[in-house]
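note to self — DONT lose this again. spent like an hour looking for the file last time. sequence + predicted structure for the chain T wanted, 68 res
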Amino acid sequence: MTFRNGLDSLLRPEDSVLVLIDHQPYQLSNLNSHDPHAVVNNSTALAKVAKAFGVPTILTSVVADRAA
């Protein structure tokens, strides 16, 4: 493992991954600690910034559309 100092020690896109877990409307309906719209807006902004910086993003979902 190589240690970095100064600006080289900052988090870089190639050393990062963004994981978004279950950001679905029905999961937010019982959320009482935060405004659901703010959670959606913040998650969307975070995903867009990750895309702009080339950070790999993983999105998980419990319920996915399935072909019958």
